[in-house]
Design a protein that fits this description.
The chain has 111 residues and is of the alpha+beta class. It has one domain (3-50, 61-106): 2-Layer Sandwich (Zincin-like). Helices cover 47% and strands 14% of the residues. The chain has helices at residues 3-15, 19-24, 69-75, 79-97, 102-108; strands spanning 28-33, 43-46, 63-68. The chain has a three-stranded mixed beta sheet. α1 packs across α4 (79-97). The two termini are 25 Å apart.
């Protein structure tokens, strides 16, 4: 799968998120990279969750949600499995932006 095709999967996954949530996303950027430099991850949220922001938050660089292409493609048996894993990963990382932790995501089936 090409980089462009993978980025389209990420865009499709973002379209699955209801507009009231995407409108509420604040100071966050979505990136696609080949892989994390030291860990085997599908995705990573780095920043200050909306629920943890205080009046001292102003001036911060954007939070980042990074989706890692190679690990997802290495474990996907076909294009449909890759599409499903990208969607799960994007939703999982966006949930972290909203302050939802891994335990709750596991309970909800997005772990």
């Amino acid at each position: 799968m090409s980089n462009q095709e993978f980025e389209e999967l990420v865009a499709e996954a973002l379209d699955l998120i209801p507009q009231e949530f995407t409108r509420a996303m604040d100071n966050v950027v979505i990136l696609v990279e080949d892989r994390h430099p030291t860990r085997n991850l599908y995705g990573l949220y780095h920043g200050v969750a909306l629920t943890a922001r205080t009046s001292h938050y102003s001036g911060h660089l954007p939070d980042t949600i990074t989706i890692y292409r190679r690990p997802i493609l290495a474990h996907a048996r076909d294009a449909q499995a890759a599409r499903e894993q990208v969607a799960t990963t994007v939703i999982h990382e966006v949930a972290h932006h909203f302050g939802i932790d891994d335990d709750r995501l596991d309970e909800l089936g997005w772990g």
